[in-house]
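Suppose a colleague, Dr. K., hands you the sequence of a protein chain of 222 amino acids and asks what its three-dimensional shape might be. Before reaching for any lab equipment, you can write down a predicted structure in token form. Begin with the sequence itself:
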Amino acid sequence: MVENLDRVRETIAAACARVGRDPAGVKVVAAGKTVEPRVLGWVIEAGIRDLGENYVRELRAKREVLPGATWHFIGTLQSHTAHHVAELADVVETAVPGRALRRLAGRAVASSRTLPVLIEVDFTGERTGVPPGDLVGACDEIASTDGVELVGLMTLPPLTATAEEARPYFVRLRELLASLAIRFPGMRELSMGMSLDYPVAVEEGATMVRIGTVLFGERPPA
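The predicted structure, expressed as tokens, is then:
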């Protein structure tokens, strides 16, 4: 697993070199769905501090035994569990306007917290997320909500046969962030790219890459 992480870091460094970026500007978020806490502990020991979880039950169990990490919620935000996410996560990457976000923000306020959130952008028209054309309104709503701080955009592009075919979606997300940041200057983060396409995402400006399979291998469904 440590060897896998070394390869990820080398790949990120190479992608940054190709476009003149500093690798320090790219954060690896280890996507830990179904991964045992002891394995995530090895990742922390190897220097990764950002861990991503899709499910509240796993986030709760792992946070209890793995101190010192920054926990990213990267699953679909749901109204019946959003209040738990507000208590357990340090960053929420899947924000969309609606009841779940209001519950998240309300619990954060009650806990005297302000949670950094990224808006999930849906380019497919079929997934959870905000369509690109609705982003300004979504940003207005979230930016005016107490308990959350709007810091960027996240996407999962449509399934493609090759990593290169995902590039246009990463380019588009970067362009969207650049245009929105004029109105919302706190928006700086681009969470895009996973195991199959993260080098391309880094070339196009990703500040966070969510890496699971290339670190931990293929995993059974949760």
